[in-house]
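Dear colleague,

Thank you for sharing your sequence with our group. We've completed the structure prediction you requested, and as agreed, I am returning the results in plain text so they can be pasted directly into your records. Please verify that the sequence below matches your submission; if there's any discrepancy, let me know and we will rerun it promptly.
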Amino acid sequence: MLNPTFVEVLKLISENIPSNIKWAVDGSTSLALQGIDVTPRDIDILTDHEGAIGIQESLKKYNVVPISHSSNEKYDSYFGTFKVKGIRVEVMGDLRVLRSGKWGILQNPSTVDIANTNLEGISIPVVSVKSQTESGYLSERLKRRD
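Please find the predicted structure tokens below.
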């Protein structure tokens, strides 16, 4: 179950990202929107490189860390952060994740399974539970919950 501020922020994001940008909610917020019992701390948006730049422009008044290529011991993507109504929003374009010592496939809306969920009358694209299971994220997230 999402708290009302998360719902407001998701609606705002959905209304502000242009229709030509492919994007989807990922991570724990995506799972919560699909009925999995998790409590999100932030909103993750998965897109491609061009989408990340477009989202930055669409949400520029909320931008905290501009989109740039970012890589560390676990993640590689075009990454930036936003703060909307006190909620941290992370945008990841062309994400790759290191699991079990190997870099996974490039993740963006063209390479993962996207579903749509209805949030108070607004269709929100989400990375499917199936894709999050296949990537290993779901089992990692459920372990952190326990």
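Summary note from our side: The chain has one domain: 4-145.

Kind regards,
the structure core
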